[in-house]
Each structure stands twice: as C-alpha cells, then as structure tokens.
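Treating backbone geometry as a discrete language has practical consequences that deserve illustration. In the encoding step, the backbone of a single protein was reduced to a row of integers, each denoting a local shape. The amino acid sequence and the backbone structure tokens for this protein are reproduced below.
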Amino acid sequence: MMIRFNLKFAAITAAAAVFSYFLILFLSAGYFNAEIGQLTAGINQKNPKPPIATAVNEDFKLETAAGISIIPAEILRTWVSVYFRDWTQRWEFLVDSDRAGKFLSALARRLDRSPTDARLAVINERLKEIKPAIPGRELNVEKTLVSIFVALNKGNNSAVAVFEEQEPPISLDKLQALGITSRLGGGQSNFAGSPDPRIHNIKIGSIRFNGIIVAPGEEFSFNNWLDEVTASTGYQAELVIKNQKLIPEYGGGLCQVSTTLFRAALAAGLPILERHAHSLPVRYYNPQGFDATIYPGVSDFRFKNDSPGPILIQSEVTGASLSFEIFGQSDGRRVIIDGPHVYDAQPDGSMKTWLRRIITTADGNQSKNTFYSNYKSPSLFPTVRNPLE
C-alpha cells in the first residue's frame, strides 16, 4: 500500500516503561502526592519546611536541546502548594501537574523540530544525498515533568529536559534498503507572476506530495493524497476554472502541482491511468498540451507504478519553479517525449495539441502513448471576482 514516510523511529526500552509507570502513578489523580515515592515530604513542624518550599521562590533553569529555558518563580508557585497538615503534624505539598503540563506543552511547540528528509540526486550514475537528512526532536512532557519535580523536591533549581529523537523518514540508507537506487524521471514548471494566494497554495500542495512511497503494482491517485482543500487545511482562495467561469475557490493553483507531477510520471515511463487537460490554455502550464487538471470529485490525475520496486516522489519549490523527482529501481526502460505540438490554433486563443511518449523496454519492445488536448478560447471564461476585494 502507498505510505507517506513520516513514521517515528524510537526504541521502546525497559527504562522508558519504568518511567511511564512512574508517571502514571504520580499523575493518576492529576497531582503529585507528597507522601508517594520519591517526593515524600513528611517533615516535623519543628524542622524547616521541605526544600521545595524554598526552591519555588527562585527561577528554574531547564536545560533543553535549544539552550536554557527559564521557568519564572511566579509560574512555579502556581504549580506547587506547600502546607502543614495538622492531623499528621507534617509539612506536605501538592503539585498541579495539569497546569505544569500545559506550560511544557506550550514550550514544546517552540522547542520541537520535525525531521528533515534527505534530498536526493543521481551523481555519476549513483543515488546520493545532496542535502543530508536531519533528525528531529520532540519534548517528552511527562518525563520532563518528573525531572523538574524531582529536582525541586531536592531543593534544586535546574533540570535537564527529556527529548525523544525522531529519525528522518527519508534517508539514503533507508531508500537503498527498499531497492530505491535510481532516478526514474522528473518534471518542472514555472509559476512566475502568480498572485500571492496562488503561490501559497502551490507551496502547501507540493509539500503534501513530498515523501510519498508508492508500492510496485499500486495505483497513485492525486485526489486521494490531496485530501480536503479548505481554509482549515491551510489553503487560500484563488481563481479556478469552474462552470465555464474563472472563480475564486480554496486551493486555486493546485493544478500547478498535478501538472508538474504528470510531467515527472510521464518522464519516468509510468502508465498514465487518468489525465485531463484544462478547458482553456493557461500560461503557467506552458508549453500548452503538457498539463493535468484536477478537481476533487470531478477529475483526477492517476498513474500506476509498474516498475520492479517501490518509487519515491519528492517535490521542491525553488523561487518560482516547482519540480518533482521520481526515484525507484530502474528496469532499463528508455523514454522519449515528442512534443507537445500545437495544431489548429485560432485567433481567439483556442487550440489543439498532441504529445507522444515512446517507451522502449530493456529487451527492445516499444510502446507509444499519445495525449490530446483541446483548449477553448479564454474569452469564453469570464472572471468572477470576490465582491469584497
């Protein structure tokens, strides 16, 4: 099945299990009880207050992977309440782990770092990393809470935050283990001059298709991977072709992504199962006849991985250029693209085109596919703008 390589690679050790049990024991009631485990604080009233009573009056230094983070004393005092219990004649304290946890969760959003995939290229006929993979990190809030409160209980005002390392999904070693050793093909397009919302949508959309692995024999559907196109998924309103009009909708410009991926799949020699040309010529998709429009629920772009092994799709935006690369296991097929060629061009801007792909297999067998496009005059598609613009 198709997968996106964003899995966390973390070993589950016995030590981690012990920590988890320790945390559950302490947090099961929503707070630390001072009479449980390491945080026992029973001290006779004649003796000084427990060390934590003094520690929470000073700022706390939390050593993190990004440097020292200061937890102000006024914050610490909202986490801990120290009191003398008459009926036990002991100093005790309670910890509001919910409030402390929310603070650390907010801190984690600044400290966490997603892993960065390696960028690949073929150099001297060998697949190499042109940008090495970078591990990510994720703050373990529960273990860090334990570290902080154990330190405070001892009267210390510093502790080390606990991070879990996240291995990058895409690295050269992992891909080679899957048999991905060659560049099968690539495609490029240029969106210079696009409005800002269109550029935004292209960048958001291209990220969606970066790092996808398609298993051998499996079909790829652009719409299935695209998922919902709404404001909540990060898209902005921009012009789309709909009902013989150009109207603003969320995700306008995503056809730049499907078009560029179509070009890469074509160059890789993968069977194209579904491809639709736009209704009118669009300058962002020059040369005309080399595009693939999509609209969820209406039109899709699909291809099949008929190569010997899994393929990897990588996307990249550089300036006003979008590129897709497809890597996999080569079976020796050679691809020639003839065109696109324009014919029946009319003064009103309408035109027809054809593009032919010739695939020659390693044993010399040859197959040809021709892709026809019929573009109507742009004058037939009035632009409907948002009245609030």
In short: The chain has a mean pLDDT of 84.
